[in-house]
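User: I'll paste a sequence; please echo it back and then give the predicted structure.

Assistant: Echoing your sequence first, then the prediction.
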Amino acid sequence: MALFEGSLGEPAIDDDPETRRDQRRRGLGWILVLVAIAIIGVFAFAPSPYVIEQPGPVYNTLGTTTTSDDEDVPLISIPDEETFDTEGTLDLLTVSIVGTPERRPTWADVALAWVDSSKAVIPIEQVFPSNVTREERDAQNQAAMLDSQLDAIAAALVELDYDVERDVVVQSVAEGSPAEGVFEQGDIVTSVNGEPTLDVGQLRAAVQLSEGAPVDVTILRGGTTTDVSVEPVQSSGGAWILGVGVAMDYEFPIDVEIQLNNVGGPSAGMMFSLGIIDKLTPGALTGGESIAGTGTIDSSGVVGGIGGIRQKMYGARDAGAAWMLAPASNCNEVVGHIPDGLRVIPVETLDEARGVVEQIGEGADAAEFAECTTG
């Protein structure tokens, strides 16, 4: 009897085949779950074919910036002209790119960005084309920034009625294009279809309006004026082109210096112009308000569209701006995506942008301004 003491009441081992099969199925199920979790974990931290756009640094064009030597200098300085005290901020906005071809965001990073309205996920080829080196890309962005600064200076001085010499100069002629044998490097385009040409935008607009019909161009070459006629062709993207590369050449009546490191692209043009205008005119243009903005500019004061508008709206809001100026041509990307606490006002010209800033500075109500529409 002692041999079996304590065994009474203990559960017997279940040798039922169905029960054993259920136990094996449950064990296999847990193994599959663990394998799936491991696969998902590995996949989540694998490199993706995307980069992430997010709000970048914000710079006050009325303030200072830090040079490569860690020295604080005015972002805009006008050394030989009377300038006036400013108040508030005129912030230019930037976009930062997270990821490079060598260090791509993981799928986990991409998943988090997809659900963050302040970020955008874009194919890496869109930012880093395989046929363009990193050095070439950086050089292009820096050249675009320098050109935008010159355009901004010209636009501001023209707006303030300074006499600015502006020439549209031929930089290159594409082989096999309609322009070959007609234009030469160094030609100055003075008019198109009888209308004076003061900036690159006017030339491009005239060519587009021709819709393939011959374009009459007056050029200045070696001191001699010549009239030529060129029939545009359509590019692969559908735009009408002559086949010339052109750039602006300016002669400014006063010295204006813009200092901004590690920022590329042309989208700060409008805000540079507003900063210059504020410094050269009595009184604070902003009335002490914090106003942000973005948009390209040409020497005639036309505000052009930019990329990354949604990220820039969040950058403006996070920097403390209650107001933001945006190109009217970006309105389709603005509507429905404005973060709480920010009022976005569309503008088409520098003169219009200046007027909006002055009204805000004078205490205008938000209801007085137009809003972006998609219609």
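The longest strand covers residues 50-60. The radius of gyration is 30 Å.
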